[in-house]
Amino acid sequence: MSAVRFEGVTKRFGHIRALDDVSFSVEPGEVVVLLGLSGSGKSTLLRHVDGLHTPTAGRVTALGTDVGAARGGRLRDLRRRIGFVFQQFHLVGSLSVLENVCTGALGRLRGPRLGLVSYPKAVRLEALGHLDRVGLGPQAFQRADTLSGGQQQRVAVARALLQRPEILLADEPVASLDPESSAQVMRLIREIASERDLTVLCSLHQVELALSWADRIVGLRSGRVVLDEPARTLDHSAATAVYGANQLVAIA
Ligand SMILES: Nc1ncnc2c1ncn2[C@@H]1O[C@H](COP(=O)(O)OP(=O)(O)OP(=O)(O)O)[C@@H](O)[C@H]1O
Fold first, then answer.
1. Where would I find the ABC transporter domain in this sequence (predicted)?
2. N or C: which end of the chain has fewer CB within 10 A?
3. Is the CB of 13 under 6 A from ligand 1?
């Protein structure tokens, strides 16, 4: 069973066709990078996977669930199994790094939590383990807003891991980072995906990073899939052609 399957997915926002008959599948443990110009539909596609958008036509299946048809508890269960990392990290700056990571467990804990000690010890220990994994154990008790952008994104990855996800969605996770931090975050996502057999669907703007860290690259242009190839058989110019207005790109 595929981890994610898009079948003829079209999404319209009024007169805008953000996705146009998109079909492809992502296999368990695969790292797929979405490339495309701004406005090509990458975020819209990612947001269909955990039900933040529903298709105008077609179907999205994630972990065996028809996402558009899932409601209430079924949708919550699905979302618990899907982590999301965003360009702007979405940390609470005034909280400690560790407490930010602990919030990743909220979906499986009952009731609200206020303060680090309100989380079960097992959760705090698990969170510390994930912080060690992303190289930020020593920063656990610092305020999150004292960290660099690259460090904050690694905290966001640790928080997503605490969710114990089977799928990780990442929407331009390195768009606001310098090249060195970008490579570090992508390497981390890649390594963790391999260690945990995590399925990753990640949008990026940087062709080099996509070629270095993806198993497979899917290119979008004006909401349509114009490229779908393993990264290892793709060269830089073919990947870059996704951005060209008039160039033809082979669809595998
Ligand atoms: N909620 C919305 N309401 C109306 N139009 C939207 C909405 N979300 C996206 N769109 C439109 O859908 C199209 C695809 O947008 P999307 O954000 O998916 O592109 P993207 O490839 O992720 O761009 P970027 O790289 O800038 O994030 C754009 O024309 C955008 O303006």
1. 4-247
2. N
3. yes
